[in-house]
Design goal:
Blueprint lengths: L15 E3 L4 E3 L2 H10 L11 H10 L3 H12 L4 H12 L4 H16 L2 H14 L3 H12 L6 H17 L3 H15 L2 H13 L8 H6 L2 H21 L2 H8 L3 H23 L1
Antiparallel strand pairs: 1-2
Helix pairs in contact: 1-4, 2-3, 3-4, 4-5, 6-7, 7-8, 8-9, 9-10, 10-12, 12-13, 13-14
Amino acid sequence: MSGLIYCREPEVTEPYYAKETGLSLYSAEELSYYIVNYVLLLPEDFIGERLYRFLGHQLGLAELEGRLRRFMSQGADMYQGLFVLVSELRYYNEEELLQFKQKLDGLKHAGPLELLKQRGDFFLDVGQYGNAIHTYDRILREPSQDEKFLAGVWHNRGVACAQLWQYQEAMECLVRAWRTLSLDSIAREIFVLYWMKPDLLIIPEEVKASVRGETQYRWKEELDAFQKNAAYMGKAEEIAQAFSKDVIRRREAVNSLIREWKQEYREMAG
């Protein structure tokens, strides 16, 4: 898993090993960055003896260790403790800390299935597609009365499957999501998936009937243009990333990608 920044030469004899990602943390800056960016993966017992020892014995922050111990012993929950810790490490500015607090508040008030979905979405965003599918499957095994929520899970599971070339499974997931949400954006994904593997996949008649022929033609032209541009400019990976976004963010990602290509062309053309 990528994304962790390295700030300085290791100064500790025993780094903090983050089991959930396999990363080793060597500094207060790395610890702070890890908490903020990987908060969805932190176990419930993250603030415990192992973390306390790392703060006091390895980072030389005995005073902070003591304050955090006292704070947690007074009944604070993990999210409150994380905010105190990140604030005291002083790696982030006030605006960034406010954003982190808002994120923590959202996590604190989310239900268990919503938390699982956010974790699955995190895996999807960072390209951990197998972990994303595993997380979505945990949600789908639980009873839920919210059909739209489940449809969102099916949709993102389908995106993850497509990234792993599990095209038939991806099609099944996307169709299930479309039958509940009836979104044109999902219908478009179904068509795109079919055009990628027309010898393997079938578009359900109900999906075909929901999309006008001229719209299908336009989508196909857009896909062809994307593929040609990717082949010419080496952007295949960027296309995959754009199409892996969720329903809400996909259009923004694709439009941003197109703008970047246009700017690159202008620069090349002088």
